[in-house]
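Structure ticket #2291
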Amino acid sequence: MERKLDIEPHNVSGGPTGIEHQPQPYRAFLRLAVLFLAMLMPWLYVSYGLLILKDYRLTILMYELLSCGLMVLLSRPKLRIFPLKMPISRIFFAVLLVNVLILGTFKATNGFNMDWPMFYERGQATRLLINGDFWIFAAFIVILNPIFEESFWRGTVYREWRKIIGVWPAILVSSFFFGAWHWMVLQTYCQPLWALFLTFLVMVGGVLFAYSYEKTGTLGAPILLHGLGADFPMVFVVYDCILASSHLLK
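Resolution: structure written out below.
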């Protein structure tokens, strides 16, 4: 039996089960169009921020505020973070496991076999430097980014797809698009094969976040998994890459 998400019964019309009133065709089409547009908008903001503005800070702000925050405000979903509804020990075990996998792979591959001259050049071009701004945005990424992204990708996008196509198809669709836009960032700083591999891992992370949301019905578990399990170790990965590229090219 599926666990009910934090939504009122009247908000699931058009869902896969218990349907009494089917939405009119034009409304269903409009819903799909808005969903696809919402999932594609991150590509626009990230491309504009990294390729035109060439500033990773503005890129993050545009994505968080316009792609995630604005869409959540417009859709006005009824979101809850607490209670976690999942044993905290299980959450932190998953967090520890993902940290070990990410950081272990990074060290074992000598920094994902990074092309250090390319990383240094593109880091300089996009102002990705170790300074005060870096630590401000690192804190933002670990603390606030999981709230923004989970509210949007799981609390809004996944929930809307779930009403239309059911649980697992919705998990896969939302996770694919969640991971896909990260490719724009990863291919900017990594070699092509590593960018694709890391993009796939982000998609897998999206599946885990959506599954934990489905099982608990609140955003608390996916936010903790996202922030501490994925974003926290990636801050250290980026920090180490900046230092390594700077030292190797001096």
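Closing remark: Residues 9-248 form one domain.
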